[in-house]
Structures are given as C-alpha cells and as structure tokens.
Amino acid sequence: MTKRILVIGGGIAGPVTALALRRAGFEPVVFEAYDRSADEAGRS
User: Fold this and answer.
1) Quick one: signal sequence residues (predicted)?
2) Plot region of 13 (φ>0 → left; ψ -120 to 50 → alpha; else → beta)
3) Four-CA torsion 30, 26, 19, 12, nearest 10 degrees
4) What is the pTM of this model?
5) Are 29 and 4 in contact (CB under 8 A)?
C-alpha cells in the first residue's frame, strides 16, 4: 500500500519535496495557490 502525502505550496521547494518523497516510495500530491509562476509579477 502506497501512502499519499500532501505537499501544500512551498514555491520551488514544493515540487522538489514531492520528487524526494516519490523516490522514497510515497505518492505525493502537490497543491499550489497559483496555476502559473510569479515570474511576471510586478512587470508592467
């Protein structure tokens, strides 16, 4: 039985954590507040 773990946000650390958890045998699910990156934030 695979254990599911929720990763809530975390910027770049969220997906990196999820990758590490998958390698450790878990099933990570990542939830992020925004559907795209903030690269364009503050630009006019």
Assistant:
1) none
2) alpha
3) 30
4) 0.69
5) yes
